Write the structure tokens for this entry.
Amino acid sequence: MGGQQIRTAVVGAGAIGGLIAAAAVRAGHAVSVLAHGKTLDALRADGIRIVGEESETVARVVADDDAATFGLQDFVVVALKAQVLPAVAASLRPMIGPQTVIVAAMNGLPWWFLSGMQGPLAGQHIEAVDPDGRVSAALPPAQSIGCVVHLSSSTDAPGVIRRGRGNHLIVGAPAPALSAQANAFSTALREGGFEVAVSDDIRTEIWVKLWGNMNMNPLSALTGSTADQLLEDPLTHALVLRMMEEADAIGRRLGLSTRMEAAERVAGTRKLGAFKTSMLQDFEDGRPLEIGPILGVFPELGHRLGVPTPFCDAVLGLLRQRASNSGL
């Protein structure tokens, strides 16, 4: 990257992608944002507007709906809903050269998750997030790192992002070859205003976050209940725990630790009180649900590993029908 301005493209200018793009601008990067429709119009006219509790800031970016206009990038941040990525991954290729680092800032397991892993699934891909390996073909796993998002934000309007609780990101490279680039990207995010930790075990960080979301998100979308309602009902509370136990059994086969018992993790969620999960918010707003990345990966991995997942299977079947019958 030398002494030239670092070129960073952000794919997906939603609540998280917009915050990351604005942070990269503050860190001095040359930032391009791939966007469409009303969001593209808003970014071109007004930039990215970040609304905080006490102030509002604007970050100016180059915006277009064609990745080819941006040219090769140093970093490409993928901040899309994961179920959208297989359809658009090939269109991102014009930005990706042999030195480009691809940053997955998404919910669920990223397309590169099994790449480079030892153990029973070495060399395989996850069909629920990388059907037929299409994403990996366009976004090389060997050039990819992870960014785990521990904060909430929302879009008030196209290009207008409202900050919520938290400001914490965890960045890491799944392979040591990209450690320096992961450190450089985390430094930029820190300079841009985030609290950033660098992890040398980013797969575990991704797994732990998903382990806490793979039950509450689907069950809330099925029931319309806030988190406290799900956990106050003894039957849905028990279902939450059973789903986590199935996921944990898969993780242990893959050498991934959750670092705590399911009941301990749920107790932490309970302290957050009455909140709507992201999947329930998507459902209520008529947006497609992240079914495969958040839940579908577990029955798929369980089947390959010989780990039974009857509770996850049942909830996945119900959730697919709920989404389909609602046009999502």
Remarks:
- The chain has two domains: 7-200, 206-322.
